[in-house]
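FORM 7B: Structural annotation worksheet

SECTION A. Query
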Amino acid sequence: MKQFWKEFRDFIARGNLVEIAVAFVMGAAFGAVVNSFIFDIVMPPIGKLVGNVDFSNLFVVLGPEKYSSAEAARQAGAPAIYYGRFINNLVNFLIIALVMFLLVRAVMKMRKAKEEVPAAPTTKECPYCKTQIPIGAVRCPNCTSQLA
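SECTION B. Predicted structure
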């Protein structure tokens, strides 16, 4: 049993798992910020531009009943298509996807820039026998020629 807890502790303390947990929490927090941005900042002006529409309240009841709001239809348990909420979530998804694309693109550029830096050469060619020798050599170990 002691071995089990030791293995479990080692598993939890692994770097990748901790990084994934941090990324998950940050993603959830980022999602909350984006949700607020969409529902509180982006959609109200768009709704105002298209005629004072509250997108979260757009719905079609699949029956003869009439309801004053989407919330009233939900509380009554009426079958309805809540397409306004879908529009909000679609805009939310597109903004998150755009931000993630830009983030991944920036990270890939940084990685590519780091990879493109060529390593300093460690060898040079002997001008006499054309074999590779250490860059600091003053005499070729193969042909014993004196190097400049």
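SECTION C. Observations
The mean pLDDT is 84. The chain has two domains: 2-117, 120-148.

SECTION D. Sign-off
Analyst initials: ____
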